[in-house]
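Notebook B, p. 112. Complex prediction, attempt 2.
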Amino acid sequence: MINQVEYHPRLSQNDLHEFCKRNGIQLEAWSPLMQGQLLDNDILHEIARKHNKSVAQIILRWDLQNEVVTIPKSTKEHRIIENANVFDFELTNEEMDVIHGLNQNLRVGPDPDNFDF
Ligand SMILES: NC(=O)c1ccc[n+]([C@@H]2O[C@H](COP(=O)([O-])OP(=O)(O)OC[C@H]3O[C@@H](n4cnc5c(N)ncnc54)[C@H](OP(=O)(O)O)[C@@H]3O)[C@@H](O)[C@H]2O)c1
């Protein structure tokens, strides 16, 4: 089973992710780049600089190391290639924690708890 939800460093869905792990459900991220709104974050830029990667790649690598399937969207070929190029480096535990620290339970999409279905 897969649960596809909004997931990015400003919305790290800790309780939901723990629930999914306990129940054999794979978490999958939509809007993993917060629809572009995280790409100018200073903390992510600093981590990206250390790894010689882009901020998008840092976020997508954070997803993978959190065992979250991720589906970024881009209309540009060079960014689609960039977004797939995240398997040749590893974030440290400290960097993972720093990125987790960005969580503000902030959504760019609709909240399923308050949605007019
Ligand atoms: N948003 C929703 O409500 C929703 C719901 C369910 C599923 N999904 C699916 O989730 C996927 C992604 O979600 P999303 O489109 O909402 O947001 P997203 O993937 O978080 O962000 C997409 C935005 O980031 C830009 N971008 C992508 N890669 C980049 C890079 N390497 N560097 C700089 N900018 C980059 C894209 O611009 P360019 O195109 O100009 O590169 C686009 O503006 C889509 O496939 C969508 O179908 C979305």
